[in-house]
Structure formats: structure tokens, C-alpha cells
Amino acid sequence: MLRYLPFMIFLGVVIYALIDCATTKKEDAKHLPKVAWLILIVLFPLLGSLGWLIAGRNRRRPSAAGGRAGGGSGGGTGGGRRSTWVAPDDNPEFLKKLGDENAKDDSNEGTEDDGDEKGDGDGRRDGGPRKD
What we know:
single chain, mainly alpha, 4 helices, 0% strand
């Protein structure tokens, strides 16, 4: 079983490079067109895969602007740019929306009247036990 390990690693690297190259945007391929990289990976699996993984793609580094790639506004709304996922409690847009909803609920809390809660003035809903 151990003698198949190098072949399995080689196959995994080739498949990963092929899928990574195929799903990469045309603009992100460096040095050669994307189609040329795909042909290199298929014809020369070892060299093509290693070449693609080392030098074939623009690798974006996270910027200092909030730890998101491309300096986007976050939350996956970078205008087509790749960005990292932002947790809801770290997303200012989500927190603002949540605060607005809470403020709206608080302001409507005392004014809501369902009409079906007709009480007898004891402060309890009808149907519960009454003390006379």
C-alpha cells in the first residue's frame, strides 16, 4: 500500500492543478493564456502542474484593509473580486441592519394590539385561571 503513495500524491497534485486552472478566471492566469496552462498540465502532468501551482496564477494576498483580499467592502460584495468570508458579528452592514430592526421592534412594541386579547382588567389573558 505504501508503494502507491507517491503515485497517489502525484495524481492528487495533477487533479488539483487541473481543476484550479480550469476554475480560475482568464485575467488571473500569469505568463501564458489559461488554455495553454490547461494543455501543459494535460500533456506534461508533473511539469505543467508544478508550473501552474508555482507561477501560473495571480495569488492575491489579504490586504491590511480589514483582512479582506482586494480591499473590498466585505461580506462578499467586492464587485466581482474575491474576498474572504466575514462573520456576521464582524460585518458592519449586518450589525447596522440588525440594530435598525431592533430599534423598529422596540418602537412598535407598545403600539401593537392584536385585538384578540380581550381581558377582564386583571392583566392576564383570558383562558387562564382567575382569582375572584
